[in-house]
Amino acid sequence: MADNKTTKPFQEARPAEGLEAAIGYTFRNKQYLTEALTHSSYSNEKRSKGVKLPCNERLEFLGDSVLSILVSSYLFESYRDIQEGELTKIRAAVVCEKALSRFAAKIELGQYMHMGHGESMNNGRNRPSILADCFEALLAAMYMDAGENFEPARVFLMPFIKEELQVIRNNSVFVDYKTTLQQIVQQVEGERLEYILIGETGPDHAKIFTVEARLNSNVIGRGSAHSKREAEQNAAREALILFGQKP
């Protein structure tokens, strides 16, 4: 039996034109948008009445890949000194269910969904898993409507991703220390920052690299790691501490 604390009056979906205004994209083929906004509970209700109406699960499947490609491409181009393992962690953080449901909530996506009576009355329009899935389906719908072109979805998505990355940085989950240090150094014209490999220890399968960050030949930081790039990041972090910056 439904929990009375979470039961709400049934709510019809808002007109989809409002969502198009919110996302800054007008669909040429409205069927893509309708499908993206159709939850399986609504599709099942219609089927019981003899009406065939596809739900958004197939678009969600495609949208997961659209999302991954767009975010992966942005991270690859923006964080050139970050290793694959760290990039994977960052991507996972910005495309997780919690993040996607927040993106969806900002455009009130749940209010535009076609949802079965039971799901709607049990707060389905605010359920993170439903919102996240619908957000992915919406990305796929934009991609398909644009002729399998990523650009409309990219323009819509990236402001959310950039904002989420900033939150991650502020919480120290991820900091690109080299970029931060470079920005500080560039404030003074003529300063030369470089990273010098000063040592390698250990066997080939578990080698440790040690790197010094040097400003005009003066050592300002030193770092060690299992890769040169990570060692450089650690050296930059030490330099930021030397400069009185909180990494």
Overview of this structure, please?
By secondary structure, the chain is mainly α. It has two domains: 16-170, Ribonuclease III domain (Ribonuclease iii, N-terminal Endonuclease Domain, Chain A, Orthogonal Bundle); 177-242, Double Stranded RNA Binding Domain. 54% of the residues lie in helices and 10% in strands. The chain is built from eleven helices and three strands, in the order ααααααααααβββα. The chain has a three-stranded antiparallel beta sheet with strand order 1-2-3, covered by helices on one side. Strand 2 and strand 3 (218-225) form a beta hairpin. The longest helix has 22 residues, at 57-78. It starts with 15 loop residues before the first helix and ends in a 5-residue tail after the last helix. The relative contact order is 0.12. Mean pLDDT is 89; it is low at 1-5.
